[in-house]
């Protein structure tokens, strides 16, 4: 029998389940492995490409065991238990959990009746000579997450590019931010799925290394391994960098909050069956936005001085909102005057939005 503090168990399971993709075509992605060995609890989950192992020392004497159970079921159950401790007992074909009551979880087995095996994660901590705060990397990916492609037909765009900068893009927007110092010399191409996992986990200080298109993050309590660099050879990096470095005829300073409020109000007048666009008219000291049917318009002021008389362009409303939301400062720099893009800059964050061709 194993006895573990319920609050600790809840935290472990809640982290572990974040890696599960719950893909019906890949049954392993719906499962969780719990293994007790030499008084250490190991919890393993996978999305069939990326794998997480959590480690937790146990108090007292605990029996060695290995089980595989439904990930959602054990996570949801334990998160509803209110007793101080939760007990686990392996029987012939179930994992018996005791908390407020007793609950039998079916063991998941293969065709031969053996407990299903998860992929082994082989790693060499001695090769992990780069160390940094995991959450610092997660924050960089979070800033860029609104720009990453969700179109699987553009597989190369469904990745974060990392070197001196962290970059994410689809066909309508680009976001970049300076990378953490420890990774500025390491070229990485991290999938949208691995990026989501990194953004969701709290691992503290980690050691890091890459080998054979695999990446390893190793902390005292966890090992996260994932695949990297798939479709890197197809990524249009130079084209993306050229958009980030593009020059513009005009520059203004604009309040982020006012612009987001304008977007939110005009969103009420843009419907799914219509063109999802805003027409933007820039004059010397004001920006006017109008929906494509011209049933609503709003004007806000900005700061700046040059010879601008008028500049007009159209942008995708959802892309514009996502890019403005990626910025942190109350006032941000707005660049425009190109027939291809407009650009926002907030310190080391650059957010580009493509302009739309007129129909």
Plain-language structure description:
By secondary structure, the protein is of the alpha+beta class. 19% of the residues lie in helices and 38% in strands. The protein is built from 7 helices and 24 strands. It has helices at residues 6-16, 71-78, 134-144, 192-200, 237-244, 256-267, 317-325, and strands at 2-5, 31-37, 40-46, 51-57, 65-70, 85-90, 94-98, 102-106, 130-133, 159-162, 165-169, 173-178, 188-191, 205-211, 214-218, 222-227, 250-255, 277-282, 286-291, 297-301, 311-316, 331-336, 341-346, 349-354. The strands form 4 sheets. Strands 5-2-3-4-16-15-14-9 form an 8-stranded antiparallel beta sheet. Strand 18 and strand 19 (286-291) form a beta hairpin. The radius of gyration is 25 Å and the shape is elongated. The relative contact order is 0.11.
Count of individual helical segments: 7
What is the strand arrangement across the widest sheet?
5-2-3-4-16-15-14-9
Terminal Cα span: 69 Å
Shape: elongated
**Main beta-sheet strand count, sense and barrel state:** 8 strands, antiparallel
Q: Could you report the average pLDDT, rounded to the nearest whole number?
A: 94
Proportion of residues in extended strands: 35-45%
Helix content: 10-25%
What is Rg?
25 Å
**E-strand count:** 24
Helix/strand/pairing category: alpha+beta
Q: What ranges have pLDDT less than 50 throughout 5 or more consecutive residues?
A: none
């Amino acid at each position: 029998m194993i006895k573990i503090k319920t609050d600790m168990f809840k935290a472990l399971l809640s982290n572990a389940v974040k890696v599960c993709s719950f893909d019906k075509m890949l049954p392993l992605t719906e499962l969780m492995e719990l293994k007790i060995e030499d008084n250490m609890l190991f919890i393993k989950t996978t999305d069939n490409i990326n794998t997480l192992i959590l480690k937790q020392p146990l108090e007292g004497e605990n029996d060695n065991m290995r089980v595989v159970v439904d990930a959602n079921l054990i996570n949801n159950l334990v998160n509803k238990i209110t007793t101080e401790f939760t007990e686990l007992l392996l029987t012939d074909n179930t994992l018996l959990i005791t908390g407020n009551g007793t609950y039998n979880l079916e063991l998941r087995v293969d065709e031969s009746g053996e407990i299903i095996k998860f992929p082994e994660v082989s790693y060499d901590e001695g090769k992990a000579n780069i160390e940094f705060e995991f959450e610092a990397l997660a924050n960089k990916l979070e800033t860029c997450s609104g720009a990453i492609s969700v179109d699987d037909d553009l597989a190369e765009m469904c990745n974060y590019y990392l070197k001196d900068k962290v970059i994410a893009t689809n066909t309508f927007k680009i976001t970049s931010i300076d990378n953490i110092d420890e990774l500025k010399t390491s070229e990485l191409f991290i999938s949208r799925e691995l990026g989501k996992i990194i953004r969701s986990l709290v691992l503290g200080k980690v050691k890091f290394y890459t080998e054979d298109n695999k990446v390893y993050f190793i902390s005292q309590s966890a090992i996260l391994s994932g695949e990297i660099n798939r479709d890197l050879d197809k990524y249009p990096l130079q084209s993306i960098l050229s958009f980030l470095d593009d020059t513009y005829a005009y520059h203004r300073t604009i309040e982020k909050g006012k612009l987001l409020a304008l977007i939110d109000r005009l969103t009420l007048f843009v419907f799914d069956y219509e063109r999802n666009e805003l027409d933007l008219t820039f004059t010397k000291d004001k920006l006017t936005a109008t929906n494509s049917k011209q049933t609503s318009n709003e004007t806000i002021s900005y700061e700046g001085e040059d010879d601008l008389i008028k500049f007009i362009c159209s942008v995708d409303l959802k892309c514009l909102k996502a890019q403005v939301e990626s910025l942190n400062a109350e006032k941000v720099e707005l660049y425009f005057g190109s027939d291809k893009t407009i650009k926002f800059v907030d310190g080391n964050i650059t957010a580009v939005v493509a302009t739309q061709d007129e129909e």
